[in-house]
Amino acid sequence: MKIIEVFATQGKIVTQKALTVEQSGVIWVYAVTWGRVATDGEEGVTLFLGTHNPKLDEKGRLILPAKFRESLTDGLVMTKGQERCVVIWAHEQFSVYAESLRTRSQNNEKVRAFTRVFFSSAFDDVADKQGRVTIPAPLRQWAGLDRDLVVVGADTRVEIWDLVAWNQYLAVQEPGFASLDEEISRP
Hints:
By secondary structure, the chain is α+β, with helices and mostly antiparallel strands. The chain is built from 6 helices and 12 strands. It folds into 2 domains: 13-43, no CATH class; 51-175, Transcriptional regulator MraZ domain (Chemotaxis protein chec, 3-Layer(aba) Sandwich). It has helices spanning 66-69, 91-102, 109-120, 137-143, 163-173, 177-184, and strands spanning 13-20, 27-33, 36-39, 45-46, 51-52, 61-63, 76-80, 86-90, 123-125, 132-134, 149-154, 157-162. The chain starts with 12 loop residues before the first strand and ends with a helix.
């Protein structure tokens, strides 16, 4: 297996890896850029990392972290998330996820229930010039959002949490973090 790593500055390629899969002769290449992940021949997938602590203003607006804005300039979709947070998806990633839901059987009652709640709670938006988005009142109520927030980069999505709820979540989840890695890494 051949691995090549290249590191560059912010806004350019951060890591590039070329992998030759043994016996196949196929070379797989992917590149991670700040806010973007691209596979060879593809435009890329949005990648969000880190934890940020912005404030919600009196109009229900949030200033998106600067490093997330470029990936969300073409628009975003906000919806209910698991564990009572708000999820922000870049439009293209929301479309990918929505398509994966469409492949599920609509004869399954649980699939219908999930997709109804998920899509009915979705709101699309575009950040203004200051990088602000308005979190709709139903989503603020769902997640119990007040002034103090935590914005979490969670791979292909952004999660918005109430500060107290996030700290409570971490208090429960962090002690078992290492064992979770072992559990979810099993084939």
